[in-house]
Amino acid sequence: MSRKLDAFTGNKETKWPWHIFCLVKKAFYGALMKSAKKVMVTGNFNVLHPGHIRLLKFAKTFGGKLSVGVLSDQIAKGAINNPQEMRLETLSLINMVDECLLIKTSLIDFIRKHKPDIIVKGKEFENLYNAEEKILSSYGGKLIFSSGEIGFTGDFTEKNDASVSEVSRVF
Known about the structure:
Shape: globular
Largest sheet: 5 strands, parallel
Strand order of the largest sheet: 3-2-1-4-5
Strand content: 15-25%
Helix content: 25-40%
Structural class: alpha/beta
Oligomer: single chain
Order of helices and strands: HHEHEHHEHEHEEE
Radius of gyration: 21 Å
């Protein structure tokens, strides 16, 4: 075994004490986490579908911590069929999601409070008014849109069968 390898395994035969290696490792990961971006995705997430998963995967590529903001029942009102507790629980079970947060205030106030470095939205929002842009630019945050894969509306309930009109290609 070489001395270099011994230094990383903590073998006492080397000139590198184990505690020095641990301190260097801790400093390295500490610096890495400080430079990691705080990324956020927000929405109703009424019915979690493959488009949501692709959006979350895309968002995770931009930083170390992925937070998902779920609009409360009161804010989402008629756009949801599932209670906020169920929507939060479903998202919290996804490994790439580091934190699920309930949005009880306006989206702007929520963003102001949490100050994400990046907010990721679906490509279908790119040519629309995005209220997040103004607050993000005030502190150097960025709004990024996903790649534009196939998206689903999320309204797949018994009242409304999944039809061709609910599936759209977004460019």
